[in-house]
Design a protein that fits this description.
By secondary structure, the chain is mostly helical. The chain contains 46 helices and six strands. The longest helix has 25 residues. The termini are far apart.
């Protein structure tokens, strides 16, 4: 039996609702709501009627809201309070009541929302976000949505599936006005909602574009739940592994939604990372008839251009897969056609913007150096297209490729160079390519800012060397780019880099100077210990094997920089400034001595050994070639280079050529006595007299005796220096320019060796005048003793007549000092000094004969000298040599130039008168038993062949007997016109010059 209060409540509810349907509003709306709630709780069988009443209340509340929203008419209604009370009661019932209420209430809410949206949604909202803003502004609708979400949280798995099914059913009948409800409630269970939407959409797919509502709902859910959307797409791909419809369906969805497109790309990348792409089958023959493979590729190509991220990564993966699947190449070509049209029409695309923003440049750069040719080509084309929008992409890509490793693949090709050549060549069909100069400039600045990154810096220089060598090829596509000219424009930066490397080498391995205690040995030991302390790996000079796996040293950087300088057309295509000219001359000479220092060390010593790939000769040949090209176009370059060479050989790097200082030649181990003791050794006789005595030694010890003689240069080291001088001076096209170069060498020697600027003229004074210049003559003589390389340099100058005339002051000083010493007693008593004196005198006479400063028979004095005694040598030097040179000034005017370009003295005017030869003739006549064969060749033979010329000047052969060889029979006065005895050994790229090799014994 039902209780009376319940029946009363039921009767009250029925009567009130009946009047309400007749249009008569209830007298007490609050009481009616409470009665309905009591019935819902106490009499569940009335729930349908109660929910119908609630629907009427909610509809009236929404109707009022819509009137206010559309007509802006204020119509406060009592239904708002009723709705609020109903919402609170239902919410309490869901949270605290039996779980069976949740499916019922959620179903009622979704049905009511569908009816409300369809009934009051007179026009379609612009999108789901706008619809949410519109409907959620209504308190009644907001209560319904929150109540539905609360119910969904309480459902189990089976109930959720049923709820989703009901939601999609309502969506199917109330779309598009119900789309926002599906999107909003789908956020409560996004994965299931998205998966269900995709499954339903795939079931209904017939090859046409998906509905706009479906796309919007999936996009809305995917923006808030990206991972769930990706998982759902991946799941549906796995379910349809044969690819019958899922691929075209997803492509059409992605065409309409950027969110779905990005999610599809993420799934593609994930499957590729898991190596599962091969398991995904694509069967176009099973697709709908109106959806072909070509159309699918067009869709995919268009989507790649619209992607804001990961587009480059997907493109490169497709390029990599193109070796297996032909459709990949077709897809990329379609994409590039559309992309090129976008670029040519001055538009842009998200893919290009991604490259410009530096979002995917690393991936493109890595693809440029990959072993896959097609992937490399795709990366280069993308960089070139992006370069139309931003030049920085072009320049940064060049810098990266220059910095990339130079190691080639198994086939011997170097991918980074292939990509670099294609990039510099620009796109096919257009000449709008940015200039490469800013890129090269950035690469050089990168080296200057981080000189310690040796491997990366070596890669930049080495790749640039290879690039310039390729440009010099006969049919190189780089000729239009003119990389050589571009690098030459940046010569100042390149020289700064070279100077920086040389400075680092000097800081690490500071060579000992000439004045070191133990010479080269101490220098080698010091540099070995310094290197061991730094633990720097030894390297091969100029190694060019392209290996970048090992650590590069500063020596590799120096040699590679020189190779880059060699690739330039210095002075040919474009002139360089004076500052660069002088700097290049200085650095070339520094590099020359640097190579000599490397060669002077033992294996594993100073800075390493020479490799098999490039020996010292090859490095020096490169120096000779650069000096020849550089000095041949600018006189200032030759002047600077010669000065650096001579100063380095005589002073800074004298140890390489056997030079020594005073501390090396003499021993000062004995302690100095007190000055009073030294004065007591003099006695009182010297103080009482007015004589002035110049002591030539240490008081109490006698004259200083050298304990060590200068070693002198080795033949190889000597020839290397002379070859460098020849490279600076010699001009194969202009012999006069060569003579001018060696004349400048003579003037430089006078400047560097002569202690002052006085008495440096060409004439020889009276022999008595040498007392005035005795001190400076001895200083010059001492310089020759400590730097024997001077003899070799003078011998080279003597071969290029009349250049030695400008060294007259040096020859005069040597002759004067030798003449005074031959007259002194020390020449007879000191055996060591006599040997040294004989050597100096012989060398002096050889030089004068080679330069044709002494005519025959005086030109043979250096051969006769060894048969004469000390007084006889002094007598011949005074009467024959000094007097002849005093009366015949060694001036270039005395030399004439024959048609072949050689300078020589006219034999008819240069035959010495008898007063200059009688002393020699008389001296030799006294020793005919020893010098009879020489006397015959020097005096008797010429007189027998030309009896009429006994008392008149005779022609002479300036080449006979020069260089230490006995004179041969004279077959005429013309002879060789002073031709040399033998060629000087030069590098393969240097033209040999006429001249002897004067070796130091």
């Amino acid at each position: 039996m039902i209780k009376q209060p319940v029946l009363a409540e039921l009767q009250f509810f029925v009567n009130s609702v009946s009047l309400l349907y007749k249009g008569i509003p209830p007298k007490d709306t609050g009481a009616l709501v409470k009665s309905a709630l009591h019935l819902l709780e106490d009499l569940p069988s009335t729930r349908d009627a109660v929910f119908e009443y609630f629907t009427l209340v909610f509809n009236n509340a929404v109707k009022g809201y819509m009137l206010v929203a559309e007509k802006n008419v204020s119509d406060p209604s009592a239904d708002d309070d009723a709705v609020h009370e109903i919402h609170e009661a239902l919410e309490l019932l869901v949270t605290e009541g039996p779980s069976a209420w949740c499916p019922l209430i959620s179903s009622w809410c979704m049905q009511l929302l569908g009816d409300i949206c369809k009934k009051h949604g007179r026009r379609r909202p612009p999108d789901i976000r706008g619809a949410c803003n519109l409907w959620l502004g209504c308190t009644t609708v907001r209560y319904l949505v929150s109540l539905s979400a609360l119910c969904l949280e309480k459902l189990n798995e089976a109930e959720v599936d049923g709820c989703i099914g009901e939601l999609l059913t309502i969506y199917g009948t109330h779309s598009p006005h119900f789309d926002w409800v599906v999107a909003r409630l789908g956020g409560c269970f996004p994965l299931k909602a998205i998966s269900s939407m995709l499954s339903v959409g795939l079931t209904r797919f017939s090859g046409v574009q998906a509905s706009e509502s479906e796309v919007e709902i999936l996009s809305y859910l995917g923006m808030a739940h990206e991972n769930d959307l990706q998982f759902a797409i991946k799941s549906i791909l796995e379910l349809d592994s044969m690819g019958e419809r899922v691929v075209p369906y997803l492509l059409l969805l992605a065409k309409s939604s950027e969110t779905i497109s990005q999610a599809l790309v993420a799934v593609f990348l994930e499957l590729h990372a898991e190596n599962r792409l091969s398991s995904m089958k694509v069967t176009p023959e099973k697709w709908p008839g109106n959806f072909s493979l070509t159309f699918a590729l067009h869709l995919a190509a268009g989507q790649l251009l619209k992607l804001k991220k990961n587009a480059i990564e997907v493109t490169l993966i497709v390029a990599k897969l193109s070796t297996k699947y032909g459709w990949c190449q077709e897809l990329l070509e379609m994409m590039f056609v559309e992309l090129e049209m976008v670029v040519l029409e001055k538009h842009t695309s998200p893919m290009l913007e991604d490259i410009i923003r530096d979002g995917s440049r690393d991936a493109l750069w890595q693809a440029c150096i990959s072993d896959s040719p097609y992937q490399q080509q795709v990366a280069v084309r993308l960089i070139l297209l992006a370069s139309f929008k931003s030049n920085s992409v072009f320049h940064q890509s060049i810098v990266y490729l220059l910095s990339a490793s130079a190691a080639g693949d198994a086939s011997g090709t170097k991918p980074q160079l292939n990509a670099l050549v294609r990039l510099l060549g620009g796109p096919v069909g257009t000449a709008e390519v940015p200039r490469a100069k800013p890129a090269f400039e950035t690469a050089f600045e990168k080296i200057l800012l981080a000189p310690g990154k040796r491997v990366e810096n070596w890669n930049i220089i080495h790749n640039m060397v290879t690039l310039l060598r390729q440009e010099r090829a006969a049919a190189s596509p780089l000729r239009k780019v003119n990389c050589i000219g571009t690098v030459q424009e940046l010569l100042d930066r390149l020289l700064k880099i070279w100077e920086t490397f040389m400075g680092q080498e000097r800081a690490h391995d500071e060579p000992s100077t000439v004045g070191s205690t133990n010479g080269i040995e101490q220098s080698l030991e010091g540099t070995q210990s310094a290197k061991r302390a730094r633990n720097v790996p030894t390297c091969s000079i100029g190694s060019d094997n392209g290996d970048t796996t090992g650590e590069k040293t500063i020596h590799d950087l120096i040699h590679e920089t020189v190779r880059l300088i060699e690739c330039l057309d210095i002075g040919r295509t474009a002139s360089i400034g004076t500052a660069e000219t002088l700097k290049l001359s200085q650095l070339l000479v520094k590099y020359f001595f640097y190579c000599l220092q490397l060669s002077s060390g033992p294996p594993g010593g100073l800075n390493g050994t020479f490799s098999e790939s490039e020996a010292l000769d090859e490095s020096l040949d490169r120096v000779y070639l650069l000096l020849s090209k550089h000095c041949g176009h600018r006189k200032a370059a030759r002047t600077a280079a010669l000065r650096e060479l001579l100063e380095g050989a005589l002073f800074m790097h004298g140890a390489l050529f056997g030079s020594q200082s005073e501390t090396d030649a003499y021993c000062f181990d004995k302690l100095d006595d007190l000055l009073i003791k030294l004065n007591q050794k003099q006695g009182i006789a010297l103080n009482a007299s007015r004589a002035t005595v110049l002591h030539a030694g240490v008081i109490g010890q006698g004259p200083k005796v050298p304990i060590k003689r200068a070693a002198g240069p080795g033949s190889a080291m000597q020839n290397q220096l002379l070859n460098a001088i020849v490279a600076c001076c010699q001009d194969v096209n202009d012999h006069q320019a060569t003579i001018d170069g060696f004349s400048y060498v003579s003037l430089l020697l006078v400047e560097l060796v002569s202690p002052d600027v006085m008495y440096n003229g060409l004439p020889w004074p009276e022999e008595e005048f040498t007392k005035v210049t005795m001190e400076r003559d001895l200083q010059i003589r001492r310089t020759f003793r400590h730097a024997p390389i001077l003899w070799s340099i003078l011998g080279l100058v003597a071969c290029y007549r009349p250049s030695l005339c400008y060294c007259s002051v040096l020859l005069r000083a040597l002759c004067a000092s030798a003449l005074h010493q031959w007259r002194s007693k020390t020449a007879e008593t000191k055996e060591g000094q006599k040997a040294d004196l004989m050597y100096v005198t012989t060398k002096l006479l050889e030089l004068m004969a080679l330069a044709q400063l002494l005519p025959p028979p005086l030109s043979y004095l250096h051969i006769v000298l060894e048969y004469l005694d000390g007084p006889e040598i002094a007598y011949v030097l005074k009467e024959c040599v000094w007097n002849y040179m005093k009366d015949h000034v060694p001036s270039p005017v005395l030399f004439v130039c024959d048609p072949t370009g050689f300078h020589w003295r006219d034999p008819l005017t240069s035959r010495p008168p008898v007063q200059y030869t009688n002393a020699l003739r008389n001296t030799m006549q006294k020793k005919l038993t020893k010098v009879g064969h020489l006397y015959y060749q020097m005096f008797v033979g010429p007189e027998l062949r030309n009896p009429q010329a006994i008392n008149q000047p005779q022609g002479f052969n300036g080449g006979g007997g020069v260089g230490g060889c006995p004179p041969g029979p004279s077959n005429g006065d013309q002879g060789h016109k002073g031709a040399p005895l033998g060629p000087l050994v030069l590098g393969p790229n240097t033209t040999p010059h006429p001249g002897p090799v004067l070796l130091i014994d």
